[in-house]
Amino acid sequence: MWIVVGVASVFLLKAAGSKSLVPSKMQSMAELLVEFIRGIIQDTMGASGMRYFPLISSLFIFILFSNLLGLIPGSYTVTSQIIVTGVFALGVYALSLVIGFQLHGAKFLGILVPPGTPGWLLPLMIPIELISQLARPISLAVRLFANMTAGHVILGVLFGLTIAGGVLIGWLPFSFTIVLYGLEVGIAFIQAYIFTVLTCVYIGDAIHLH
Amino acid sequence: MPQFDSHFFSSLIFWEVLSFSILFWILYKYAWPPILETLETRERKIRESLDQAEQSRATAEQKLKEYETKLQVAAKEAETLMTEAKHKAQQLLDENQQRLRADTDRIKEEATQDIERERRKAVDDIKRQTADLAILVAEKVIGRSLSDDDHRRFAQEALAEVAAHSKN
Q: How far apart are the first and last CA of chain A?
């Protein structure tokens, strides 16, 4: 985790250091990331969501760098720990609840009733919506954890097969690991992206209610 | 599976919260503001440049229109001038032609009159000389008695003389 903090900080601080209008390579990479996150926030939460930009972008950077650094052989993926992703997911969900109650007070409970629901359906809809709300942090945590763990488990198994197969047939699982490695890099990005988008959606729901 | 070993949970939570807080603080304090500022500055610059370009384009278009109008006016003026000049030239040409024709007619008339006068003079001269010659012949004829042969000879002589005179 310290490595994640270190690498991410160094990268972004260095990029932030050069403020030239015509960006250098590192600066444009960092700006691409920032533009990307800003785009997600503005698409899901609108312009008012930019208040949460520092938190959401830090979260994205932390998860992205954890995922990517975990792919370096010999290192460890912190996001493959259910407790790590769980703390993030619970934190995000708690934050969305806090924002919701802060902005709308008791009216925020209206999030449990989808708009246009007839009165007689309320006893059915409220428990369903309650479950879906409670499932949010769980699904958020498990999705990231499971993806990261599964990727590493598959890579581990293939490497095991490579070693067990020896030179004769070991090349087959080994070539698979190369392909899977590329896939894993994509998944590292995609999972960080999904986590961020869902964070934005949850906070956006809390801001705009329906 | 080590992922579900609750023995590490508390320390993991602690380190995660701590490291994320530090990362968040560093980025919040030192990374995001300058990057966002740079992006906004660039966006503003680009927007300004585009606006300026748009403005320049509009000005250029207006100038072009002005020039086109001026050009049209100039072309019309040139056309008018040309027509006038052609007209004037035609007029001059007509005048010249008329004067020339008049001159020619006058010269021709004068020449004809001269020729006619000279001709008449010449004819008068011939007549006078012929008369003189006739008188001379008559005098000679009257001065002598003549035979038929003489008549003939004199007449021939006279004729030859006339012919010689008229040759001269």
A: 37
User: Among A111-115, A121-125, B12-16, which is the least confidently predicted range?
Assistant: A111-115
Give the DSSP per-residue string, B60-117.
Answer: HHHHHHHHHHHHHHHHHHHHHHHHHHHHHHHHHHHHHHHHHHHHHHHHHHHHHHHHHH
Q: A-B interface: how many C-beta pairs under 8 angstroms?
A: 92
Cα angle value B110/B111/B112 (rounded, 5°): 90
pTM value surpassing 0.90:
no
Q: Which residue has the tokens 């008049």?
A: B102
Residues 6+ apart with CB under 8 A from B30: A13, A16
Which one-letter DSSP state was computed for residue A22?
S
Pull the structure tokens for residue A148.
């990261």
Which residues in chain B have Cβ-Cβ distances shorter than 8 Å to A62? Answer: 20, 23
CA distance A210 to chain B (A): 30
What residue segments make up the domains of chain B, in order of their start? 7-167
B41 to A61: CB separation less than 8 angstroms, yes or no? no
Contact (CB, 8 A) for B23 and A62: yes
